[in-house]
Specification:
The structure is a homotetramer of 489-residue chains.
Chain A lengths: L5 H7 L10 E6 L7 H11 L7 E8 L2 E8 L2 H4 L2 H6 L4 E7 L14 E5 L2 E11 L2 H10 L9 H13 L5 H8 L5 E8 L4 E5 L8 E5 L2 E5 L2 H6 L3 E5 L4 E6 L2 E6 L7 E3 L1 H6 L5 E2 L2 E2 H15 L6 E4 L3 H13 L7 E3 L23 E3 L1 H4 L3 E6 L6 H12 L4 E6 L21 H4 L2 H8 L3 E4 L5 H4 L6 E3 L1 H4 L8 H5 L6 E3 L4
Parallel strand pairs in A: 14-23, 17-20, 20-21, 21-22
Antiparallel strand pairs in A: 1-4, 1-10, 2-3, 2-4, 5-6, 6-7, 7-8, 8-12, 9-10, 9-11, 12-13, 15-16, 18-19
Helix pairs in contact in A: 1-13, 6-7, 10-11
Chain lengths: 489, 489, 489, 489
């Protein structure tokens, strides 16, 4: 209705999902139970969903650090001879998501650098809210920057503090109070592996173990991939050092409330991961169950938008007693290089990435579970596809509250101008999407899906309740970009 | 127990699934409603599951035929400039599966050839059981062969018959009685598109329509991908000609019983396809329902091995009332180039391609649905993974009968020596897989999943009841190979 | 003057040189003195100047033939692992030149084929003048064609004759009388290597030996590259068979006069090759000496257009006593993928591929030796470049007579419309090129540069005196093309 | 004799030539007479001989800097769309040579960096002798290093000085006194192009002009490639600023004697370049003439080892009256990826890269001109090749004095242990090479080939007379390496 052609808007904005920055993985294997390079490879495959733009692996090697990194998927970047060549006892890996402007080879991680005490490699997941101020101050003192990544800033701060401290971990502890925002990171020297989670614990980070070898990962599914047993989550503000003496835990001197990202459960994380003691799959099923109670509807079947919507649909089905069905199939062969249809082909090519199971939905009243609504255009496409496939009714249930606020801690949410919930009532959104009814998860219920007392997590994108400061320069729109490599031409 | 180390056998035999040869797609668009190249591209993405080794697209072009084909996935082989350059009104595409020995660039299709009447392109899905005899006879008359593909043989036969017939379709009709075995194929001349399905109708082939433009596809999901409406399946023994006069149906002079491959429903086809009037999804759900009746069990949850096992699990859950859960997650980022773990890493890397949802299955009695058991090693790995993840019991239910016989019509089944069901009782197989109980779908029930009266389909791999002759040379082991290109080094 | 802007015409017609089709190399090494794959690799590098579009190597391998071939230079197509994998006692290789329309992967050689008696590989250099008739006749009998290469035709003829003859070499002898035109080719079966030179001996072919191993090559410089000693040239109409009994010579039953291509000496061959007993370098120097006598001029220095012009310049200098100098430098880094300047950049970029040595030529009267004039535009560019660099006078001397006739035996000469000598007097050509004087080698002198009595060579492109029939279809412009692969997009 | 198998030593040390680091090119085109990207492309092709490992181009772009750089040749790294995308008025380019350990993508130039005043790009040719000390001091102050390149050090120094100076060029002038060693470099900001040549003027750098646009290049042959007129060489210690006000010359406050590298004339530079007023071709011919006087010999012909040996041979021929001939042919198709022969193939493959013109040298007394002798093994191979080809005598004449000392200013000379002249008399070297006589250019004659009074150039590698300090750490063998990327696996 008031959105003239949602299908076209959708195509112009093809990749409109919500994204987070990166996944990290580290190994410390003194007993040789794990090969660092092969372990990183398998683990990065397991967390590839956290970033598909670039990836890399670094291992220690007789006092030096050997590495390989490049643009592309893990399966594209690494070949057998590389893994064979990357020999060592310690290793870190990285998969990177990036928005378009930073999607360049220079930003591939691990970041490799040499400072006064030797070589370091850094793998980083997060967003500093005071990056601009820190960078400006460093430049004022004569620093130069060759990338646009936060870990380059952190490297300078570590290099500066390291001159005054007896160890790299001490330097890290001195640096942490200077940092604002979200960061889960791994630092590797030729002798040590250091894992750091920011005081708010925005991004996940957990420890696993195989015999006497340790691994650290953004998500526990990576532990499974290397055959490691889950040990524990790293705590907000904690610094864990792995060296020849085993594992040591240090704590940064910060007094902030834990506020881990609730959206990890709703969308980012893999369904088989467990974060801070809560199963992602269980949280998603619970959101479906809550929706069945909050927004019940008479229907013939419950279906989910792959992948996260499926988990919520199973929960909704269990709670409501309406049978769960597979109603939408996702094509796993649509790669990063998908050739978009021309204008004249667009209308016909709605069923390429997702296809409705016409046989199943025809003539049926369908409850459709999805994880979120951003612009509304994707939901509109899916509802239309189901109705074209013969669905009698489509009742849309969203396993999160409406998006209302930008995220300053790493989630790539569009500006408020583009958030459909900022400009429209829920009823209007139902109209825009074409759904026969629409229900969002209530804001208050977020705590229930992770069995929280209402504290310990960040829901700012829904509530506007920011647990950490908002960066000044983001409000004023200043940029730190300086150069524009030509990649992929 | 008697299989010493099933895990290792599994890794030595990494790709042990059952495979079929190829998918085809064609367009005839006189009214310009479809762009042949873009349509082929989107359709081939939709049937990419039928073959990932090579792919190609050919379009007519002012009396000539333009094409591009190569080794690799559709998303790897085609770039925007190619699609732009492939202009025409008619197009055919192909995705190819091949066993190792034929996995060479020369065998990529469509096959392009010139004969006395001009140029032809062929896309082919099938296996001739008398290929060896036909080839030998052709060579005896002076023919040379540059590939190891059946369509090269068919091209010669068409070229020979075409000299005596007034049209290409007449020549095809003359050739069909000479062919034995399975073939669904598309033949494109600069003026016509001809679709052919063998008299047994082993492989699927269906027609769709967009305005006045026609498409033909191996599976109906490809019709959805180009926005076409389903018209009908091509009948066994039917030759459909698309030209400026529209669509014309001819019938080969053969009197054989239809015997379409039952395994298309069980495994090959995409769940959202409808073949010969039967929904693949419905057939799979029905097999799950039947299993629940034939092999009931007390349990806490039903889960499926992705992807086809999930559909059967939903059916089993519905019939049994045991809740459906997601118990296994499949990693979609494991590509064709996955680097296998070294011997020392193998034991630990069982949870890379598939991972158990430990949180869900821990302490639970699980019914596990899978589509088939070949060697038994994959099933053993999955059962072990679930038990390692804490499952209290694992009851394996297979949505097909035991594999006992080789397939001569295109399915790449290992020799009887490697089929676990040829050497072991069901009880023994349960032991080999480690399952607490094991149930196969009864042979008699196959007809029920496709609502048949017991005729019209081929179940030879389960029953040994071959609807068409068995090729002599396959029994004697002669080979037509002659040269060995070095690819991928 | 009358050609308004020769510089622009030149750029529109960037690649305007004269070309020949292909180079071949073969090894028969029963004693293992040579590794077939490595020998082919080194030899193909040595004859790469004969063709840069595609290349390939095939070796025998336990009754089969293994091969690798692709578009690109030898250094681009082969990697160490390939050479290691290509194990055998017999091998043939190929480098291919092609004009634009046939520049496709399918045409890469060796051609691999299987016929009634087993597998064959063919490497071919030549042009059949009756290809069209042969192809048409074969198609009429039911043959299909998958390439546009002559060796595919020859393969059919061999396959047909082989049914009636006791050996492959007997079949070749039966085929030869059916062929018209130029062909030097190598045929490899898993047991034999057969070398064939057409009765006119248009293209060169010679034999070398290392211990008890034999090699055959288009040019003797390839013998040097593998450390082989020159044995002898293969005679026109000769068929040489290499098998376990050593070397055997057969002779086709044809009675034609030898007429080897004179242009091999002037342009095609590498200066260090010796063809039919005559050194290419010596022939070029002699042409320079003759020019010094036929078109003497007062000047300060003699320079040559790299590469063949340099040899002639040395001869001119010796005969005239005018000092030889390096006056033009060629940039060896301009590859096949050179990015052409935009229209606005063209005038300035004349000195990229060739540069004048300003310091040497400034103020000097220069004699400039080049091998030929086709359109005149390249000569005009070079003369202008020298004058811009300060040359006081430029006297152009061409080491061949004016091009007046098309070549039907493999040399890619433009149509008469584009041959400057067909439309202009020598005086006018001098004006077009901007040279202060111009002299061509006299037609009568051709025999002198190869010390001939005036017979035994073909100079049809200069004289119009064709030693073999002119193909009918070339005059009428019919084409055998049928499909258009999209490469390099 | 005492060197048991020089051929083998040679192959183990395949790439034993002398190398220099890099070539630079810059454009400032306010009037648009030159397109910066296309000009850089053509110019880099012209100076590709100065470095083949990596290359890059950066252009200014609305206050930012756009760039592309990668490992590989200019013809491999750049594609048309890139040049089209690199739009601006200012541009700099770089081709890089590197010894094995630094041959990594991170070191590709131009170096891109952002500092307090904005963005800079640097292209650099040289070697700082105090790099180690500068780096150590910068690290002590908290700097981090991401490459192993000198320009990263210089960037820090500029960033530090720039805080106290009103302009980038002032900062450069403050930095220069801190630098020791050789450096010719270009610095580009979004507004300016700055060219700097070190006070000794070790490496060349010259200015050209097209209409109102300026270019700067390592060698004048790059000026020819873009159609620019030579303006002048940049003087040692000079800083030239190109901005909207035109060209401005500043002078660093250093008082050292000019000492440009004599080896540029002997080996590095392209023969058509003119450096500091002296033609490279003329210098080489002069060295040949001097050798003819210093080491006369009776012979039948003079030949040269391509390329630089040819120029000297022409000079030797002129002076001695012995005819110049082409005696050795170089294969231009041997690329960077040449597959080396196996041990068993080595002896036979001596004539791959270079081949003797047997026909010309057979039975002749040959004077062979080459530019230098390092280990002696290459010379031994060439002499042996000529004798194998039938040369009666080979008299080796070297157009430089014996190498006796390491170079600290950029030339990649092996350690003294590997320099044959450090351990053997000239007579012994003649024996090692197999030459019938051997003559080196006299040390005193170096001044004559560039018409110098004996000052103004550096001949330390021959004389041990170092014009600038020798770096301490090079003597002690400390390394700045820290990480080892895996490239090219």
């Amino acid at each position: 209705m008031f959105l003239n052609s949602p299908m076209q808007a959708d195509f112009n904005q093809e990749d409109q999902g919500l994204h987070e920055e990166c996944g990290v993985f580290g190994v410390y294997s003194q007993d040789g139970a794990l090969d660092p390079a092969y372990s990183c490879y398998n683990a990065l495959l397991a967390i590839q969903h956290r970033g598909q733009e670039s990836c890399g692996i670094a291992v220690n090697n007789n006092g030096l650090i050997s590495y390989h990194k490049d643009m592309g998927l893990v399966s594209e970047v690494f070949r057998p001879r590389m893994l064979e060549s990357l020999k060592g006892q310690i290793g870190i890996g990285h998969v990177r998501y990036s928005n378009e402007k930073d999607n360049v080879r220079e930003n591939a991680q691990p970041l490799m650098m040499r400072y006064v005490k030797g070589a370091l490699a850094l793998s980083y997941n997060g967003t500093l809210t005071n990056a601009h101020e820190l960078k400006h101050e460093l430049q004022r003192r004569g620093s130069i920057f060759q990338t646009t990544m936060d870990p380059e800033i952190i490297s300078y701060l570590i290099a500066r503090e390291r001159r005054k401290t007896p160890s790299i971990e001490e330097a890290v502890l001195q640096v942490m109070p200077q940092l604002r925002g979200a960061y889960s990171m791994l630092i590797m020297s030729p002798q040590k592996l250091i894992a750091v989670r920011d005081p708010h614990g925005f991004r996940p980070l957990c420890i696993g173990k195989v015999e006497q070898s340790y691994v650290v990962a953004s998500e526990s599914c990576a532990l499974d991939a290397v055959g490691a047993d889950f040990v524990r989550d790293i705590e907000p503000g904690e610094v864990v050092v792995f060296d020849r003496n085993g594992l040591r835990s240090l704590k940064a001197d910060t007094k902030v409330q834990k506020s881990s990202c609730i959206f990890e459960y709703i969308y980012f994380a893999r369904t088989d991961s467990v974060i801070d003691g809560v199963s992602v799959y269980a949280a998603r099923k619970e959101s479906g169950r809550l929706l069945a109670r909050q927004h019940p509807v008479e229907a013939d079947m419950v279906i989910g938008v792959p992948e996260s919507g499926i988990d919520a649909a199973i929960g909704f089905s269990e709670e409501s007693g309406i049978p769960y069905e597979k109603g939408i199939v996702k094509n796993g062969y649509i790669g990063r290089t998908f050739i978009k249809p021309t204008q004249s082909e667009r209308e016909r090519s709605v069923r390429i990435k997702l296809n409705a199971l016409s046989h199943a939905v025809k003539g049926k009243r369908v409850v459709l579970l999805d994880d979120s609504i951003v612009r509304g255009t994707t939901s509109a496409r899916i509802v239309k596809m189901l109705k074209d496939a013969g669905a009698a009714e489509v009742h849309l249930r969203i396993s999160s509250p409406p998006f209302l606020w930008p995220c300053y801690y790493g989630t790539d949410i569009p500006s408020r101008d583009n958030l459909v919930a900022c400009k429209h009532t829920i009823e209007e959104i139902a109209g825009i999407t074409g759904a026969d009814s629409l229900g969002f998860l209530e804001l208050d219920s977020l705590k229930d899906i992770i069995h929280s007392d209402g504290t310990g997590f960040c829901d700012a994108c829904f509530s506007g309740n920011y647990p950490a400061e908002i960066p000044e320069h983001l409000l004023t729109g200043q940029s730190d970009r300086y150069c524009q490599p030509l990649e992929h031409l």
